[in-house]
Structures are given as structure tokens and as C-alpha cells.
């Protein structure tokens, strides 16, 4: 039995890593161990995720890029609601490689818009802003550093212009469906009737293709998962031995849930400054969900969260969808 109380001692939970420490210890002291996937993205994690996006097995980025490249005019028309001036708020903008095509199209159509990428990482926002301005110095960018909903509410209060909220790349898949529904409902509460959202969903498909995307041949996804253990070692003073964990991915075609795990290869103990975490042989840490949806589940989510589905854009294989909903 682990001493959770001791593990959560107040001296450990103060400081900038306090929330990280709390989340990690809480996850690892559950009956079924888990770690929050939002912590994947430190500097090395960002780099590994960029390599995942470029790798052959990970089809998602290619599919969404093709949708945006090939259907950008239609997407632009669907998000504008006939308005000539508007604000685009992108939640979790990342390096912005997909968004750049849309912004480009809008700029060429002579539209007047302000692009507001939202992220909790100031570093990423600086990089993104630098990249976009290098390509188009005329672009009106206002980065917002902070939590999604705080920044969304702030962006909405800044002007009465039409709002377009974007959440691309199947980021919504990294929440269980009930949380995704709550997330969309919260967006709906922040914006006004007539405003639009553009959300990227990965679709259900051949289970082998999905499993391959999350257990790539080159082992980048495995390294991406292990990197969180490395991050916990260096930022929280734990002593995970990365060689003692393998990566496993499951996909359930009935629920659309694709889940990643790290599997302990033998019985051992990981030590934190204030806690010992015991692993048995074969015990798993659930690292991430990457939920897949059918088009009808997506439309249902729109309605259940108070939106009206407007348009659905899919790639030629029907593997990925970017949908526009109206508030
Ligand atoms: C960021 N997110 C949408 C990715 C996904 O597909 O769930 C993260 C990822 N995890 C493993 N590979 C990619």
C-alpha cells in the first residue's frame, strides 16, 4: 500500500512543477496506473511529435493537410458566415503548419481577420508567430498565452467581431468522449449565436491502420511515450528505468477508443523523493486515449453541445474529417 498522503506532501506540490507532481502521483497511485498525456509535450516531446506527424504510419496529419489544402476555399466560406471581418481563435495551435494554408487563402481573398493562437506554452507561440510572420508579414496575429477557456473568454471580450474557433489535428481525440462533449459545450457557452467552430476528428476505419498509426515501425511513438517517464525523472526527481518499459497500443472498434500503454517488463519499484511506486511484471500505465468517431457520432456531438452542423470536409479516403458547426 503506497502512502499517498506522504507522496502529496505540501512541500512537494508548491512551485512551478506542483501541478505536474500532483497529477503524476495521483495517476500512479490509482488501481490502474495512468499518466495525463498533456504532459507529453516538453521540448523533446514536441520534437518527437513532429517526427510522428511526418512518419509514414501516422496518416492523420497527411489527411488533414490534404483536406485543408484541397478544400480551403470551401472551408473558408463555411467558417465566415458571410462576414468580411472576423477573429480566428485557434486552440492548441502547435507549429501552425496546417493553419497556414487557411490563413493564406483568407489573406488572398482580401479578408480582414485577426489570428489568435492560444497555447499554455509561450515558447511555442513565439515560434509559431515567427514562422507565420516570416511567410506573411502583413498577418494580424495576437497570440494568447494561457489556459484554453480563459483565453477564449478573453478573446471574445476583446471585440464584437464574428468568431471562428478552431481545434484541429484530432486534438479532441485525446479526451474521452464525455470530456470532449463537455469541452464543445464549454466552447459554445463562450461564443455567440452565428459564430463558427472548425474541429478536426479522426474517423473510425480499418483497425489495423489505426493500430499502425500508434505503434509505428520506427518506434517513434514508443520513444514519445517513454519521454514522459524521462521528463518525470528530470523534473520530479524520479528514477524510472526506461529500459524496463515496452509500448503497447489497443484499438476497440466497438467504442472507437485507441489507447496507448507502457508495460512494465518485470516486477520493480520506481522511487520519487517522497514516494515508492511498485510495478508488477506486465503491469501497464495507461498513457493516452486517441478516440476515433463516426460521422454520425460527430453530428450528434454537435447537437448535444448546442451547435448546428454546417459542413463536413473529408479526405479522399474518408479517414479524417474537419467539420464546421454553427453556434
Ligand atoms: C496530438 N494528438 C492528436 C495525437 C493523437 O493522434 O492522438 C498524439 C499522438 N500520440 C501518439 N501519436 C500521436
Automatic annotation (TrEMBL):
Transcription regulation found in the keyword field: no
Annotated Histidine-specific methyltransferase SAM-dependent domain residues: 23-326
Keywords attached to this entry: Methyltransferase, Transferase
InterPro entries: EgtD (IPR035094), EgtD_Methyltrsf_superfamily (IPR051128), MeTrfase_dom (IPR019257), MeTrfase_EgtD-like (IPR017804), SAM-dependent_MTases_sf (IPR029063)
Pfam families per UniProt: Methyltransf_33
GO BP term (any one): methylation
UniProt-listed Enzyme Commission number(s): 2.1.1.44
Gene Ontology terms for molecular function: L-histidine N(alpha)-methyltransferase activity
Uppermost EC category: transferase
Tagged with keyword Chloroplast: no
Name of the protein described by the UniProt record: L-histidine N(Alpha)-methyltransferase
Taxonomic source organism: Dyadobacter psychrotolerans
Amino acid at each position: 500500500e503506497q502512502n499517498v498522503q506522504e507522496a502529496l506532501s505540501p512541500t512537494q506540490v508548491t512551485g512551478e512543477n506542483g501541478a505536474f507532481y500532483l497529477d503524476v502521483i495521483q495517476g500512479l497511485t490509482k488501481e490502474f496506473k495512468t499518466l495525463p498525456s498533456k504532459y507529453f509535450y516538453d521540448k523533446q516531446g514536441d520534437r518527437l511529435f513532429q517526427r510522428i506527424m511526418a512518419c509514414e504510419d501516422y496518416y492523420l496529419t497527411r489527411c488533414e493537410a490534404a483536406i485543408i489544402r484541397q478544400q480551403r476555399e470551401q472551408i473558408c466560406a463555411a467558417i465566415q458566415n458571410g462576414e468580411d471581418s472576423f477573429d480566428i481563435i485557434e486552440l492548441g495551435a502547435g507549429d501552425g503548419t496546417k493553419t497556414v494554408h487557411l490563413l493564406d487563402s483568407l489573406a488572398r481573398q482580401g479578408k480582414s481577420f485577426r489570428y489568435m493562437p492560444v497555447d499554455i506554452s509561450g515558447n511555442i507561440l513565439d515560434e509559431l508567430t515567427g514562422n507565420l510572420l516570416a511567410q506573411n508579414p502583413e498577418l494580424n496575429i495576437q497570440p494568447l498565452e494561457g489556459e484554453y477557456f480563459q483565453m477564449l473568454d478573453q478573446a471574445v471580450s476583446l471585440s464584437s467581431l464574428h468568431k471562428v474557433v478552431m481545434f484541429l489535428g484530432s486534438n479532441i481525440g485525446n479526451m474521452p468522449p464525455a470530456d470532449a462533449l463537455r469541452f464543445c459545450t464549454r466552447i459554445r457557452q463562450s461564443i455567440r449565436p452565428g459564430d463558427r467552430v472548425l474541429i478536426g476528428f479522426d474517423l473510425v476505419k480499418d483497425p489495423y491502420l489505426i493500430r499502425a498509426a500508434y505503434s509505428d515501425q520506427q518506434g517513434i511513438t514508443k520513444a514519445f511515450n517513454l519521454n514522459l517517464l524521462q521528463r518525470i525523472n528530470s523534473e520530479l526527481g524520479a528514477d524510472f528505468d526506461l529500459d524496463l518499459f515496452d509500448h503497447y497500443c489497443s484499438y476497440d472498434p466497438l467504442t472507437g477508443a485507441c489507447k496507448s500503454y507502457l508495460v512494465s517488463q518485470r516486477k520493480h519499484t520506481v522511487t520519487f523523493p517522497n514516494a515508492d511506486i511498485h510495478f508488477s511484471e506486465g503491469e501497464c500505465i495507461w498513457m493516452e486515449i486517441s478516440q476515433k468517431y463516426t460521422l454520425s457520432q460527430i453530428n450528434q456531438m454537435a447537437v448535444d453541445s448546442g451547435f448546428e452542423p454546417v459542413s463536413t470536409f473529408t479526405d479522399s479516403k474518408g479517414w479524417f474529417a474537419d467539420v464546421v458547426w454553427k453556434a
